[in-house]
Design the sequence.
């Protein structure tokens, strides 16, 4: 954990960006946080990319009242993997999200009203294009590394292919070159849950459509865990309050999904959830190229990949496809398949397993 | 396919049954179909058990207007695996369902109104207890075999443990001794989708709550398929009608779930869906015993098990646990793990793979 309270900052780019869809999104505001200091040679900057429902609050606390530190606090701070005594760590909230960056809940300056569904569909590439403006504005020409898991890993892949001269390395965890139809299906039913909520009103809600969004999040949680971790955490235990023969009686796992689903409603905008689900589903590292191979031929930086054995959302074979492709292209690539019971969430929960290897990788990259 | 049109019959048992919950369900009506004839020694009867949303219409057609034959038509008929020239094949719709058997949409004779949520929670064991009445009433003392996949396999397991003297064998496909928390979770979010539908009205609807039920069925379809079969069937193809950057644009797999979800609304009662989902989730072959081993110590008939490699709803390791347990108890058991890309649905789609082995098994059983 960083030693002092951290401050969330924002930066606005009036001219915005031209999106992959051809539409212009302007202005663009990004919220971000930084930890540590940029060195004189500007060679110690690390960009950390968050996942679907994450934010810029990577580590530390904003004030004494915050009960929990940032989402990847365990690896950021003096002496940690991302050592804030040595590195300048940056985390930015993506466009399309609802934590200070421009998204569907932002006011469209042209109308004075929330974008809602008039917000354009955005891609992971668009998110990175916006981040590039931020990184440039911080005076960083070349990031020492860009690191992320899940949707964060997709962003790291986009840096590697779209801005090959702007990164010295990338660390990609628990991600995929393009979600499988099974992963798309699970997002599809989550979207459907929100569409079904009559209070959603095609995005023109006053209050978050809570039942639909909670269910959508509940579906998400199933994909973040694994058969193994659910067995370990809940087994088939029935909720203590309920009888087995009560129609509304719940298993503990059911109660967990419910509880976490409804908690989510207080912190995440339903339209943002939908837009980011869409960004995930349409993600394809080869978008705009003939093949993954053509896209990866652009890569210059060494990439370190991690996959987790029980991750069934973005299974290891999908990471392995990328690793093979990069190897065939003679790119510098390192791959670790980590045994874990934690499913997709392992990248957030089991940092001890990969921390030493990422540390070594960063040391080697610094010597290049 | 049987050679003549088949007739759906019903039989009512006025005194009903005492349920596992302690409640009495009476009267009980079961709808059923039979194919072929019972022989003089009454030794050629085979009971086929249907899955979650199945019915008694196992094979053949009711009339010339029916576009599709019964759900397992491929294995029933003269010369087929379940050879109607040799066997007397019976299929009965389970209690709790909505195809002619007593379920939540039935009229409660005490009130003159539909049961809806006043219907008792029922177990797989209750379904089999009701079927036992039917089998007895048909004059069959001992079934040559009881066969089923998924929920049908659970019923076959209950015959094997609860009525060990009433079956000469069992064939159990794609099932589990008790669903894992992951399988429960997927039913839990399906239930939640129906609960969220304002037209469900705690079960007191005039018309099926279509959006919630369609979504619930969409979730189910994900679990019936596999990553592999979805890749083969849909890949990441986008619907021809939609643009990738349309907010409501759909992948083909998404459109498939939607289409099948809404089709389901016309043929299945939402409350039945909920009650049967509950029966599946609370199923445990060891219910009422100290252990699976104690339950299986009751088994007398040989059992043949099939699991399918890509079935992630009831994965092979769960069948293997039963096989190991029965072997340890020196019971006669045979196990086949079939390689298949079709996921849980493989038991319905790939009958060619197991037909010869089931045929051999039945021949051996007849000689016992």
Sequence:
């Amino acid at each position: 954990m960083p030693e002092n309270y951290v401050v969330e900052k924002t930066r606005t780019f009036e001219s915005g960006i031209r999106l992959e869809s051809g539409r212009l999104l302007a202005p663009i505001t990004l919220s971000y946080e930084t930890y540590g200091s940029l060195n004189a040679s500007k060679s110690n900057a690390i960009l950390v990319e968050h996942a679907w429902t994450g934010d810029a609050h990577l580590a530390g606390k904003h004030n004494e009242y915050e009960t929990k530190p940032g989402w990847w606090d365990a690896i950021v701070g003096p002496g940690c993997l991302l050592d804030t005594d040595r590195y300048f760590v940056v985390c930015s909230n993506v466009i399309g999200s609802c934590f200070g960056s421009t998204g569907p809940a932002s006011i469209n300056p042209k109308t004075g009203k929330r974008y809602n569904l008039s917000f354009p569909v955005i891609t992971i590439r668009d998110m990175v294009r916006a981040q590039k403006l931020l990184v440039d504005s911080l005076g960083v020409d070349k990031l020492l590394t860009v690191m992320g898991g899940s949707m964060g890993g997709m962003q790291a892949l986009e840096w590697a292919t779209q801005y090959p001269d702007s990164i010295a390395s990338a660390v990609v965890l628990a991600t995929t070159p393009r979600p499988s139809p099974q992963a798309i299906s699970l997002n599809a039913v989550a979207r459907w849950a929100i569409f079904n909520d009559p209070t959603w009103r095609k995005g023109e809600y006053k209050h978050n459509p809570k039942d639909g969004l909670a269910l959508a999040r509940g579906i998400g949680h199933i994909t973040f865990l694994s058969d193994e971790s659910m067995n370990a955490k809940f087994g088939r235990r029935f909720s203590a309050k309920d009888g087995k023969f009560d129609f509304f009686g719940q298993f503990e796992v059911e109660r967990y999904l419910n509880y976490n689903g409804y908690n989510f409603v207080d912190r995440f905008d339903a339209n943002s959830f939908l837009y980011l689900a869409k960004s995930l589903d349409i993600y394809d590292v080869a978008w705009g190229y003939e093949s993954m191979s053509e896209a990866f031929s652009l890569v210059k930086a060494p990439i370190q990949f991690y996959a987790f054995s029980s991750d069934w959302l973005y299974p290891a074979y999908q990471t392995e496809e990328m690793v093979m492709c990069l190897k065939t292209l003679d790119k510098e690539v390192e791959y670790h398949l980590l045994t874990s019971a934690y499913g997709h969430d392992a990248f957030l929960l089991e940092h001890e397993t990969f921390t030493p290897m990422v540390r070594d990788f960063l040391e080697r990259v610094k010597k290049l």
Q: What stands out?
A: Chain A touches chain B through 54 residues (CB under 8 Å).
